[in-house]
Amino acid sequence: MRITRSVAGRRHRTTLVATTGLTVTALLLTGCGGSSDSDKGADADGNITLTVADFGQFGYKEAGLFEKYHELNPKITVKEDTTAEEKNYYPKLLQQLNSGSGLADVQGIEVGRIKEIVDTKADSFADLSKAIGVDEWVSWKAKQATAPSGAVIGAGTDIGPMSLCYNRELFEKAGLPTDRTEVAKLTGGGWEDYLALGEQYKKKAPEGTYFMDSASAMFNAVVSSSAEQYYDASGKPIHEESASVEKGWKLAAEAASKKLTQGLAQFEDQWQSALRKSTVATVVCPAWMAGQISTYAGDANKGKWDITSAPGDTSANWGGSFLAVPKSGKNVAEATKLVAWLTAPEQQAAVFKAIGVFPSNQGAYELPDVKNATLPYFNDAPIGQIYADGAKSIPEAVLGPKDSVIKDSISTQINNMEQRGTSPDDAWDAAMRTVDKAIG
Fold first, then answer.
1. Residue ranges in 236-381 assigned as alpha helix (H)
2. What's the CA dihedral at 51, 57, 62, 66 to 10 degrees?
């Protein structure tokens, strides 16, 4: 998941984190040199325009990084071509890869697609293993973009370490602790404890409120916090026998049957309204979700929300992307330098400060703009610490080429359990029919 933009502009505003200022010196330290003789896209004066195709909100414009790169490299201008929705961006990328034309110098790739690209299109991209500090990334992130040959075809941008956002005001009215440390203790045993807390909430819940917004979001968190998800190491789909899928499904069905969830499709109008009206007490919170909550809950709810660690002793990853350099580009060498610069610690910290997406480069975690980051909207929650701790406990999972299809198909049927009262058995059968049709 990545924050999306509408055609007319950004669709979702994000809450800026409170940090110490990122110094110009830090940005300058990672500057690159001038154009390379190996690039064929320079004009007669040696000027090069690098194109970056991405989707949603990568944060480079908001952080002023393209302008900064031009200051460091006066002969290089970077132009961004952004597609609002990744679901529209990806088919176009595949079409361009198949035809061998129309590709930008740098292409963004969403984490849910990286396995398919690694398996089927790795030869179309430059090997970045010598250009970036692969060991700087959280290990599972780097491996996601590594082909069997050892080539690294994508540099990690951000990740979505899981936390739990909760409405302090609703917790207090329901007689529950509001301190983030105490809330973490109550859910320390895992997602079963989270549901138990939901039952406690329900006993004294303010009228018209629910413990969680969406059981499908909880399902995704449960699965994503496990090493075994939808595929095994051989590339075989195992969604029907996966222990994490089974656990997530049972917990989602339980949440629906006990009316602990409002059954909202996240990001849709009703979900936005629920945040504004404070009818949900908890939201499963990857790093980028805080911006969504603050946007739609609005200024009237500032300070009423807080953030604590995710249930259990392992976190989950929900979201994140990569930057890749097509081999067919005219500016491969300079595009590679740009990617290395954009994904270096200082620049990832600058993006985090600008739009709140969390770095995948561990070198950023000790920089003041990450390490000392708090969110004023969320009762000054120490998100730099919470997200960094979560990132370190995310298991190394096997990804499959159709992870997104499987997850979305199951999530749709969980929504049907919540909203239509579909029985768990009927919902599961419908989900499996959809998955079978989609993946063959």
1. 243-257, 269-277, 289-297, 332-342, 345-355, 368-371
2. -20
Give yes or no for a contact between 231 and 403, defined as CB atoms under 8 angstroms apart. yes
Q: Any idea which residue has 């529950």 for tokens?
A: 176
Residue with tokens 């990001």: 267
| Closest residue by Cα to residue 34 from 334, 259, 325, 273 | 334
Q: What torsion, rounded to 10 degrees, do the Cα atoms 117, 118, 123, 125 define?
A: 70
Strands (E), 56-183: 76-83, 106-110, 155-167
Contact indicator for 335, 40 with CB cutoff of 8 Å: no
Tokens of 233: 């190491």
Answer whether 158's CB lies under 8 Å from 363's CB: no
Closest CA to 307 of 191, 141, 161, 157: 161
Contact 217, 266 (CB under 8 A): yes
Q: What are phi and psi of 12, to 5 degrees?
A: -120, 125
423 Cβ neighbours under 8 A, 6+ residues apart? 417
Spatial CA neighbour of 77 closest among 107, 103, 50: 50
Which whole-number Å values give the CA distances from 22 to 14, 174, 285, 370, 384, in the listed order?
19, 41, 26, 10, 15
Task: Label residue 437 exposed, middle or buried (CB < 10 Å: 0-12, 13-18, 19+).
Answer: exposed
Q: Tell me the pLDDT of the chain (440 aa) as tens digits.
A: 555 432 222 333 344 566 543 333 333 333 444 444 445 677 878 899 999 999 999 999 999 999 999 999 999 999 999 999 999 999 999 999 999 999 999 999 999 899 999 999 999 999 999 999 899 999 889 999 999 999 999 999 999 999 999 999 999 999 999 999 999 999 999 999 999 999 999 999 999 999 999 999 999 999 999 999 999 999 999 999 999 999 999 999 999 999 999 999 999 999 999 999 999 999 999 999 999 999 999 999 999 999 999 999 989 999 899 999 999 999 999 999 999 999 999 999 999 999 999 999 999 999 999 999 999 999 999 999 999 999 989 998 888 889 989 999 999 999 999 999 999 999 999 999 999 999 87
